[in-house]
Amino acid sequence: MSPRIHLPSGWVTFVFTDIEGSTRLAQLLGSDYRPVLWEHRRLLRDTLAETDGAELLTEGDSFFLAFPDASAALTACLTAQRALSTHDWPNPEAAPKVRMGLHTGYAEPSDGEYASPEVHRAARVAAAAHGGQVLCSASTARLAEPLPDGASLIDLGLHRLRGFDDRERLFQLVAPGLGRQFPRPRTAEALAHNLPTQVTSFVGRETERVELDLLIRRHRLVTVVGAGGAGKTRLAVEVASGQVEAYPDGVWFVDIATVTDPGLVAFAIAAVLGPRPEPGRPILDTLVEYAAVRRMLVVLDTCDAQPAACAEVISRLLAGGSGVRVLATSREAFGLPGEVVWRIPPLAVDPQPGRTESDAVALLLDRTAAARGGRPPEWTEAADLRRVVQRLDGLPLAIELAAARLRVLSAGQLAARLDDMLGTLDAGRDVTEPPAGRGWAGNQQDTVDLVAAAFGQAPPSPAHRAVQRSATERHLTMQATVTWSYRTLGPRAARLLRWLAVFAGPVDLATVEWLLAEDPLDPLSVLVDKSMVLAEPHASGSTYRMLDPIRAYAARRLVETGEEQAARDRHVAWAQHALHRAHLGEDGRPVTLSLYAVDPLARELRAALRWSATGGSARAGLRLAGGLDQWWRERGLSREARLWLFRLYGRIAETGESIPEAELAAAYHLHSLHAGADGEFAEELRFSQRAEAAARQAGDAGLLARVLAGRAAPLVDMGQFAEAERVCREVIDWAGELEVSGDALLAVYNLAELLWRRGALAEAAELLGAARPVEAARPVERGCRSVDMLLGMVALARRDLVAAHDHLLVALRARMGHGYHGRACDTVNAVAVRCALGGEPVTAARLFGAAQATRARLRGTPGIFASYWHERQAELRRALGDAAFDAAYGEGGELGLEEAAALAFAVEHPDLAADSVRFRATGAVTPRPNGTATPRPASAVTPRPVGRRDAERREEWA
Known about the structure:
alpha/beta, Rossmann fold, 7-stranded mixed sheet, 43 helices, 19 strands, 53% helix, 10% strand, disordered C terminus, HTH_77, A/G_cyclase, adenylate cyclase activity
């Protein structure tokens, strides 16, 4: 270059260059760095000597030049980069990576230099470039005509340069011999991170995002644990992206899933963070030294692929410097000091207050719309979509896979096919071949391999490559996802996982121990630690459950290992034991049956019935059905009961299993009762006759009495009241002779109802009074308090409100307290009549509305009192008027059964009312021994004010 420098003026193109990472390169090469620096200068000067560019400043590894022509400046930069890349450097590690930046602006030189902001803008453009990259401003790109042969400019968009308020559009020079792939320009907006770019929207999890964000800000190591497909990675990336500005040295994402050897974990992290390997020094030492002086967040994903190696690296990084924080995702925790383990919950399947849809449904809606070409699901599919997310337990991966199935299925079809969950979700997926496109994980693994090779590490074997491939495929199907965890289990933990698949819901520790017949703590702890079983603490002790997709996988493994028969038979035995325990107190003695004790067992009992009807013992299934008899009827599930019984009959026919006649008689009897409750009267009579024949064959007098006691029901349903009354009397007399009167209690109830219907109130009251001690001695019946209910109906017919109130509220309290919801509806109707007769018509209408709404939900038949309720409602409508009655009746229809019962309990007792018979001049009531009441002269009653005992009694009723 000429010693007399001619500085261009007017439109001047300024060029800045320097070596990227020159300090680290100098430290690495030591005394060999100076020859590299001189050779770098020589190459640039030789290149520039052929141009008319003016060298204004050379300092260290930097050049500052000015060109009168933008095209010539770009040509010079291209030539220089090619010369640098093709030069034969003594050591490949010593090759300098030079970044170059150009900007064109109007400038006039003065005293051999430029005092213009255009110079500073050019320097900022160069600072935004990476080693081997050439960037230029929009003004340079506009004036750079013609471009060098084969070259072009790529628009990188608008960027804010440091120190400038406006935005500058940057372009990258692309040509043969130049690198093409570079990170985002290092501008003021280019915050340092490599977080994966998501192609789908992030849905829901507002609470989880806030909670995890706070944990990361407060703690240096946070491990997000959860089952495969729970959304750990997606949530971690989402939260980390919101913290990029808090870490000046970057937020860096490293996927451990593709690392095939524990020794390569540190290499994988170094490949992302950027420190150069140093010959003769462990990479972990280099990595720790590099991170020690920086403030950064490292996101380590899928650490369960190499848990021990990850734990070592994390421990060293955190000990090496206080500015490093680690957010890890794994299916199990590390157990490191200071580690905060945050277990990710499934997506909520129920909507939060103030929201119309849950997070799980919102995700399914979003992904379904994408799968259907942007067309959202129809509103008619809403209920089925909710069924789908409930079956999938809110597991995000399962929901994503389900949405893909909705390309070919309706929501209803998908929901119906989820009994074969894995087969449905994984349909159309073949993971035997590598997925199309390597993606981010594959590119990162290439980097890891190159870094490892530089230190003499052997390249991954074909077996290791297979592991890498399975890592990238692990979220393509539910089976691949769960297999990823299952293959890490020991024999005991794997067996426990398989056997737990027989349970439909959560179980406690005692149940798990009962299932295995050994202490399950060790294998259960493994499953909880690996997020394959969820531990849910409660005041009474923890329960354990699997998400349904994991249960489906475990059930498939159970079949493959040949253990299904033994495990499911064991589960049926447990179900029988649990149902039996529901009838016993803590001391092991029979107690009044509460159907609330059966409610939590419903899912397990259905699972046990399903196995009994398809692969197990039909006899065991019939025993379970017998224990569920009252629960089915009181929950409005008589139709379900009949279906189970039909399936069990089919199983008997299929296997030829021998069933004792007594057990068949009991099954036919309860079938008859369920058919009547379901309105199938012909079926009711048919099975009643079958039950009688089987009971006579069995020779069991008590059983025969129970069967015959139910014979009146189909006769009543068919309107044969006289015949039904005759049958009841015969059964009662016959049972008394054989001293099995307790087994004929149903006939007593039926006869009392028939006597009430034809107005024989005195006989009905006497019959019921005698039945009270019999009912009290039978734990299965006494919770219903049917005697009190029927005595209340007798009192209503007599217009004796005091006795009616007492009997009905006692019956209602017992029925609600023990879970007899179907019978409680009748009692609420009866209390409504008592209110109508007692001058409370609005309350009566509300109670009628509530009882009808509950009865409709339970799908129950109206029974023998139906016409009576209708007549009383008609009278009430006439008294109130249509508008007032309908308004009150509608209000009642909005009440749940518990709210309706509370309204009934709040009705004031007639004894406490101002116009009570106790305070009248004439007439009062004297209780009868059988529990009803009759008028007695006023002289026999001493009026008294309401005292303390009355207040206490009233409080008890309320």
